[in-house]
Amino acid sequence: MTILFTHIKELLQTRPQSEMRVMGRAMADLPHIKNAFLRIQDDEILDFGPMADLVIQDSDQLIDVTGKLILPAWCDSHSHVVYAGDRSQEFVDRLKGLSYEAIAAKGGGILNSAETLQQTSEAVLYTQAMERINALIQLGTGALEIKSGYGLSTEAELKMLHVIKKIKDTSAVKIKATFLGAHAIPKLYKTNKKEYIDLIIHTMLPEIDRQKLADFVDVFCEKGYFSLEDTAHILEAAAQYGLVPKVHVNQFNAFGGVGLAVKHKALSVDHLEVVTEKDLEDLKNSDTMAVALPGCSFFLGIPYTPARQLIDAGIPVALASDFNPGSAPSGNMNFVVSLACIKMNMTPEEALNATTLNGAYAMNISETHGSITKGKKANLIITKNMTSYRQIPYHFGNSPIHKVMINGAFVD
Ligand code: NIG
Ligand code: FE
Hints:
Elements: E1 2-12, E2 32-41, E3 44-50, E4 61-64, E5 68-72, E6 74-76, H1 88-95, H2 100-105, H3 110-118, H4 122-138, E7 141-147, H5 154-170, E8 174-182, H6 193-210, E9 216-221, H7 228-239, E10 244-249, H8 257-263, E11 268-271, H9 277-283, E12 289-292, H10 294-300, H11 307-312, E13 317-319, H12 333-344, H13 348-355, H14 357-361, E14 380-385, H15 391-394, E15 401-406, E16 409-410
């Protein structure tokens, strides 16, 4: 099956296979071809270029997209999309003045979600998560990382990972699974954190490895959650099973989590609302991607990740949704692009690089996703008519999307 798109107003993010990520000043460049064609064969990109170079061959389907842009589908490298219930009551409590930290301290927050999830069946969790993911696909998401971390017991963490595995096997989008058993200290272990860490290391990790349920490991490295020492223990144990770290660091406090994650060869460090000079130094010349989550800053009213500072220091930045019931109850990557420009002063080019190529890097799929490259998956956003890609962040809150294609097939 071949599909030929013609008269594409702008074909965005056209890259050679060798470019796996962009960093620093290079993020300001978004390679694109005006008045382009793009040929798809089955689930892959076969060929593309300017219309002037098009050699007409037989195609099963010819689609003239005059006035529209085509770009790679969003690669959302950080989500907690498998969850139970919602936390809208905590949202209202926050509107009335309680802080996110205060709500968590009195047993709400992650522990509240864990209690609900423990009582929810695998089937219900799967159905609800798939509904959310199908809505995200309509919004242009073509690859999604999903974390456990609302189970906080061996049984419930495995239940979450089984749900993620089933999503991986049945959803059209590319899914990566992250084990986040160290998301919070469960009530049962409130006075004995070490015992919970032992459970993660000696019971959860071996079983997750046996069943091959995770691609990555994550820890919420934060005051009141997991210390540098705890994080190091867990990352070291996970490394024995080949799990690469993607770590929650510097959301509220900066105390060396970035350096520790880099030392453990983390694929990404995520949040970074608070960043020190030392963190910048640690990230420079590393293979670790800095992932900003502006939806969380927007929803909680906390500082935004200083993306300008990171980019100006030559560091690669990706953007993700952090979709979760407590700090970012939206997985809309179009809005993430707008927030990154409006609130973090990223340019549209930087924001689009951060949500496609760099997002793919942060989930280790840049060989197959994240750019318009021959041989990569045909995961595409076909926009509505627009004058330029600048209109994507500019019309915040609007969907720029006309159609989405995942693995060469249009999504209804
Ligand atoms: O990335 N910071 C830790 N974890 C999530 C929030 C989880 C929650 O509040 O349920 C985050 O923001
Ligand atoms: Fe998160």
